[in-house]
Write a structure and sequence with these properties.
This protein is of the alpha/beta class and 454 residues long. Helix content is 22%, strand content 31%.
């Protein structure tokens, strides 16, 4: 493997530092703008290379010592020693936890870099010059913001550990206390840890969900049949650790996929939380935004962009449990939510009843199949697709019968920019772009865009 010294000038959407030398682009895991680094090239492509840091020759002014031992080996660039927890350290494993990409960057700089990620995506991929992008809305406290964590279990020398995946890998490293998660998760992990031993190898994953406003805690265990004998004991210990409900899912593999068939062994099988004054039921398999504090900020921005006067037909094309649809219902006559997930639609209908909302209805169909029959000249459409972006058929339907406004919420600037290019090259204008930092300490950024019919 070759080595090179280079200056980092930018960050890409994966959180990697970007440097250039002799017309070639180098992506450096852990590099920050302003760093001068000695790096080792680990993979070379035609126009770029992926690298790892050998030495920080001159650190960037944005660089800080990351507080988490699982962020090693980048942490070892700042600290010569790491706590010994009796398991193989992240440094020994040559990589680190994949939960964070920017824990070594000061938070104010993260917001600046993330805005540039959005600018680069919309200008380069979207082909939209000088897009109207506001500054990123950040958090007062950018730690302990996640209401959900999924932690795989793995074994090393016949001892079980709870951990996280390395970046872009199925390989796992131990994690005792994730600084991004609500503090309640640690007690749940501590309670389950004694069961991850040689005699109880059937536990594959632990999911922890927390209601920030209610304090409800869910512990959902994915395991095989060998754990059945321990289920009562595990349940009791998790309840003692603070779980309001405990669920088990029968898992056939310890790989990345596990079966979504959770059944409660204690409690209601769901938790509740609030967005503003709206109450939501959250089941184990439901999609609910992972940062409840910034979700309220994001939805306020999106609904301000929608500019509802009370007479529009609002269509939420990716409604999940109905969170933004129900927030919109108070500002208009009718809201229709669409989602392909039957469990999400059941929760959305339940959430409407919980909040005594009667002007919202929900349809379980692919959005591209349902939306052509709902669009009118007076429609306002809310798009909040998965990371892969909108289906081509959905975009074609919006172009065929263009609504007056589209509010497009995205967690992936690249696929957002791709879809914006299609929409703005047809019958829509991009009017407003508002990034919201839903995922501090990571390279991810949420964006709410307003498009208006030309």
């Amino acid at each position: 493997m070759s080595t090179i010294d280079l200056e980092i000038t930018n960050i890409n959407g994966d959180g990697h530092g970007v440097g250039r030398a002799d017309g070639f682009v180098f992506f450096v895991d852990g590099g920050l703008p302003g760093d001068f680094l000695s790096v080792e090239v680990i993979k070379t492509k035609k126009h770029y290379a992926n690298c790892r840091i050998l030495e920080v020759i001159t650190p960037s002014k944005h660089r800080v010592a990351p507080p988490c031992p699982a962020f090693a080996p980048l942490r070892s660039l700042h600290s010569p020693t790491l706590p010994d927890a009796g398991y193989p350290s992240a440094r020994q494993q040559s990589s680190r936890c994949g939960g964070c990409q920017l824990l070594h960057c000061d938070y104010a700089s993260q917001l600046i870099f993330k805005k540039q990620i959005v600018v680069d995506a919309i200008t380069r991929i979207g082909g939209i010059p000088k897009p109207p992008i506001a500054d990123v809305v950040g958090m007062d406290n950018p730690l302990n913001y996640r209401n959900k964590g999924v932690f795989p279990v793995f074994f090393h020398e016949n001892k079980g550990f709870i951990g996280m995946n390395e970046p872009r890998s199925d390989r796992l490293i131990p994690v005792d206390n994730c600084l991004l998660q609500h503090p309640a998760h640690k007690a749940i992990l501590d309670a389950i840890r004694k069961y991850t031993n040689r005699q109880c190898r059937g536990i594959h994953r632990i999911m922890v969900r927390v209601g920030f406003m209610t304090g409800d805690v869910m512990a959902a265990i994915s395991a095989d049949s060998s754990v059945d004998a321990y289920a009562d004991s595990i349940t009791a210990d998790l309840v003692s650790a603070g779980a309001a409900t405990v669920l088990f899912s029968r898992s056939k593999t310890s790989g990345n996929q596990y079966i979504d068939d959770f059944h409660p062994t204690y409690g209601a099988g769901y938790i509740t939380d609030y967005i503003g004054d709206l109450k939501f039921k959250i089941s184990a398999s439901s999609f609910f935004q992972v940062n409840p504090i910034q979700t309220k900020v994001l939805y306020d921005i999106a609904l301000a962009q929608a500019n509802l006067t009370g007479h529009e037909n609002v269509i939420d094309a990716h409604c999940g449990v109905g969170s933004i649809a129900l927030c919109a219902s108070r500002r208009t006559n009718e809201v229709v939510g669409i989602d392909i997930s039957a469990s999400s639609i059941r929760d959305a209908n339940t959430n409407a009843k919980i909040n005594n909302i009667t002007n919202a209805r929900f349809i379980c169909k692919p959005s591209d199949a349902a939306i052509p029959h709902l669009l009118t000249d007076n429609s306002v459409v809310i798009l909040d697709p998965p990371r892969a972006g909108c289906e081509t058929a959905l975009l074609n339907a919006l172009i065929a019968t263009p609504p007056k406004r589209i509010v497009y919420i995205s967690c992936d600037p690249g696929t957002l920019a791709r879809d914006l290019k299609i929409l703005t090259n047809s019958c829509f204008s991009l009017v407003d772009v508002r990034p919201v930092d839903m995922f501090p300490m990571t390279s991810k950024i949420e964006v709410s865009c307003l498009l208006e019919r030309k």
